[in-house]
Structures are given as structure tokens and as C-alpha cells.
Amino acid sequence: MRHKLQTLWVLVTSLVKTRNCTQRGKLIRVWGQLQVSGDVRLGERVRVRATHVPVELAAGPGACITIGESSFINSGVSIGAQEQVTVGKNCAIGNYTLIMDSDFHNPYDHTLPGAAAPVVLEDDVWLGARVTVLKGVRIGRGAVVAAGAVVTRDVAPYTLVGGVPARVIRTLEKLDR
Description:
Elements: H1 2-17, E1 23-24, E2 29-37, E3 39-42, E4 47-59, E5 64-67, E6 72-73, E7 78-81, E8 84-87, E9 92-93, E10 98-100, E11 119-121, E12 126-127, E13 132-133, E14 138-139, E15 144-145, E16 150-151, E17 159-162, E18 167-171
Parallel strand pairs: 1-3, 2-4, 3-5, 4-6, 4-7, 5-8, 6-9, 7-10, 8-11, 9-12, 10-13, 11-14, 12-15, 13-16, 15-17
Antiparallel strand pairs: 17-18
């Protein structure tokens, strides 16, 4: 009985914590603090564990952040969009990961906006802790990015990458689901 009450409490408080989202699916669970601004869309069964450090999801004017169903976001994650950031289904994003689709300022004149290009994480992607994903990157289905990597270029499906900048370590076997 106690477990059911705890689960119900998490589901109810999660509705409050995701109230600023443009769209939200069923059975979203948020533990801790979630900061949302702009057009943010959460799919069904998204889980956010921000118990010791808040998670930030910020989309600028005309931009959109979409998180696919059954994806998991860990503490300290920050996702910023000036255009579009899309996270597919069943993705896992590790602690303190940073995903940005823009430079957010011009390198020559900091008062001007920087270049932007959409970021896409396809289904079943896993990002380790402290990964940085920069503008214009597409990470293919089933890819894994090792902890601390900086992803500056596209990652092929079912590939393990790591390092700064991220480079291919090996290919992975496809899982039949």
C-alpha cells in the first residue's frame, strides 16, 4: 500500500512540476526540481531524476525541445534550444550532460545571436555522464556516448564513441526488439 501511495504522490507532484510544458504525455515522473521555459514537449513515461541538482529544459522564442516516450534524464542535465532539440524514445541521458543547438552568441560580437542547427538523438541512445552535444549533431539509433565526451559531429547508429572530440571506439550489436 505504501509503495502505491508513493507512486501516486510522484505522479501527482510531477503534474505540477511539468505544468510549464507545452505538451506532456501520461505517467511522467519527476523526482526533484525541473526548470522548464519555452516550448517543451514530454512524451509518455518520461522520467526525470533531479534529486540533488535541477534539470533545465529551455527553448528560446520559436524553438522546441521534444523528449520521446520512456526516456530518462538524470540530475544536472541542461538542454538549450534556439531552433530544435529532439530526443527519441527510450533514451538515457547521464548526469550533468549539456545539449545545445546553438552557440548562443556570435564569437565576434557577443550582443548578436550565434549560429544554430538542430540536434537529434534517435531512439535508444545512451549518453554517459558529463557529455556535451553541440549544434547540428545527429546521434544514430542505439548509439552510446562515453562519459565526458564532446560530440561535435554525427554519430552512426549502433556505435560507441568517446573522447574530446568524440571518436568511434567500436560498433555495437543491434538489439532485436
